Amino acid sequence: MDGAGSFGAGRAGSAFDLIAFIKQPQTTLRVLAWIFSMVVFASIINEGYVNMGSERLHCVFNKNADACNYGITIGIVAFLACVSFLALDVYFPQISSVKNRKRAVLLEMVFSGFWTFLWFVGFCFLASQWSRTSPKELPLEQASDAARAAIAFSFFSILTWAGLTVCAVQRFLLGTDMTLFTTEHMAAHPPKQPYPSNDIIGQTTIPVNAFQSPPLIETVETCPPGYKIPPAF
User: Fold this and answer.
1) Considering only CA atoms, which of 94, 90, 111 is closest in space to residue 169?
2) 208 part of a folded domain
3) In 137-171, which positions are buried (b, 16+ CB within 10 angstroms) versus exposed (e)?
4) Does a structural domain hold residue 67?
5) Fewer CB within 10 Å, N- or C-terminus of the chain?
6) Does 9 reside within a domain?
7) How many CA atoms lie within 13 A of 70 on its CB side?
8) How far apart are CA 158 and CA 121, in angstroms?
9) What are the distances in angstroms from CA 17 to CA 22, 91, 93, 102, 139?
10) 109, 168 contact by CB (below 8 A)
């Protein structure tokens, strides 16, 4: 199927334009989402655990290991997803099938929307656990900056992934309209004739004008004997 101009990309097989690719909104948002996710999970892994004079490490978020695990998990998955979708964006113009393009855009739209929700949950979870953390129980001077960075960039991740969801929805709506103009669709649905054909078993269509008689012209030959043409005034 010819995927010309469908789902926000040009004709399949066209040359890759790096400048145009960089200027795309989803490229900028994806790079930002990649950086923000890296900051979140790296902050928690490196400085998100403190010890209390023993070998056991405690999560800086109110000693709740689930909070640290949640932040690390969604951060790493988001990091890998950004790399994967960025590679898909590069390869996307080479996809000739409109159905495959539609599946790719649907996957991106669903994943981006779902991960926006997970980042929102993560932001609320980390902020709630941090607000309950007591300096008397944990030496917060060791990991306070990392905890605040994880919370702040979790919030920024909500915005970037929400923007990616909007871009995916726009591409899906654009592709839904543009698929009506593909060559396969036009071949499957030829244009209808404005008037029905008059052909009957291979007979040639006779124009309507052929059945019209010529205008009546009075001449000397057509007048009966003894008839006089009245004089013209």
Assistant:
1) 111
2) no
3) ebebeebbebbebbbbbbbbbbebbbbbbbbbeeb
4) yes
5) C
6) no
7) 19
8) 10
9) 9, 12, 10, 22, 52
10) yes
Measured from the Cβ of residue 26, the count of other Cβ atoms closer than 10 Å reads 22
CA dist 26 → 36, 85, 123, 166 (Å): 15, 10, 23, 9
pLDDT tens track for 166-221: 999 998 998 766 543 444 444 445 555 555 555 445 555 555 555 555 555 544 45
Structural domain of 68: 31-185
Taking the C-alpha atoms of residue 123 and residue 58, their distance in angstroms, rounded to an integer, is 20
The two structure tokens encoding residue 232: 């013209």
Start-to-end CA span in the chain (Å): 75
Q: How many helices (H) and strands (E) does the chain have?
A: 6, 2
Token pair in block for residue 5 = 């101009």
The predicted-structure confidence for 11-65, as pLDDT tens digits, reads as follows 555 667 888 889 999 999 999 999 999 999 999 999 999 887 777 888 999 889 9
Looking up tokens 């970037």 gives: 160
Does residue 219 sit within a domain?
no
Cα–Cα nearest to 72, from 53, 104, 111, 44: 44
